[in-house]
Amino acid sequence: MHTDESIKYNDYLMATQAATPITTIQELIAAHTARIEGYEQLKTHGQDHGNQFDENIQESQSYVAQLMEELAAYGDAAQSEVNRDTPLHKRWSELSVAPARVDPVQIADAEKALVEKYRTILRDTADLPESLEKLLQKQMTALANPHPAV
Predict the structure, then answer these.
(1) Is the pLDDT of residue 59 over 50?
(2) Which residue pairs from 4-8 have beta carbons closer than 8 angstroms and sit at least 24 positions apart in sequence?
(3) Third-level CATH fold of 4-144
(4) Residue 104's pLDDT is what?
(5) How far apart are CA 108 and CA 90, in angstroms?
């Protein structure tokens, strides 16, 4: 299990390695892809809270599409392939590997880690284009609002 400290350390590394708008978008696409996969696995194993998991999956699918549009603005130089070996991705993967033992608190912690990732990006990434910054603010605000059944 990854601790909040390992997530913060990863965020520190990201900030000190001069994140670019492209790498920022790629990291968030990976995070949302992991979130989608995590919820799909939990649903497969009979863990669902009404329609909340479906709503969270649809939310992340929508965010990925929006982020892909932003990435497309960078042309052929931008690849949609991303590093999925991050603490945030691992946190979601761990939830989906052992879904029978998942505590709702673990899900809430993974959701909070995603919001914290947005906060870190918005705070530490220099030179975000205005359209991307507005998109990230909007997504972060929606993610920070409590998801009732999770």
Answers:
(1) yes
(2) 4/109, 4/113, 6/87, 7/87, 7/88, 7/91, 7/113, 7/116, 7/117, 8/116
(3) Ferritin (1.20.1260)
(4) 79
(5) 15
Tell me how far apart the alpha carbons of residues 84 and 88 are, in angstroms, rounded to a whole number.
9
Exposed, middle or buried by CB within 10 Å (0-12, 13-18, 19+), for 39?
buried
Secondary element (H or E) of residue 100:
none
- φ, ψ of residue 149 in degrees (nearest 5): -95, 5
Q: What is the DSSP letter of 125?
A: -
Looking at per-residue pLDDT, the higher value among 19 and 7 belongs to: 19
Residue 102 in contact with residue 9, Cβ under 8 Å? no
Q: Residue ranges per domain, the chain?
A: 4-144
Q: Which residue has the tokens 């899900």?
A: 107
Which token pair is 82?
């991303």
For the whole prediction, is pTM greater than 0.85?
Answer: no
Residue 2 DSSP class: -
Residue 91 pLDDT grade (very low, low, confident, very high; cuts 50, 70, 90): confident
Question: For position 67, what pLDDT does the model report?
Answer: 95
Q: Is the pLDDT of residue 40 over 60?
A: yes
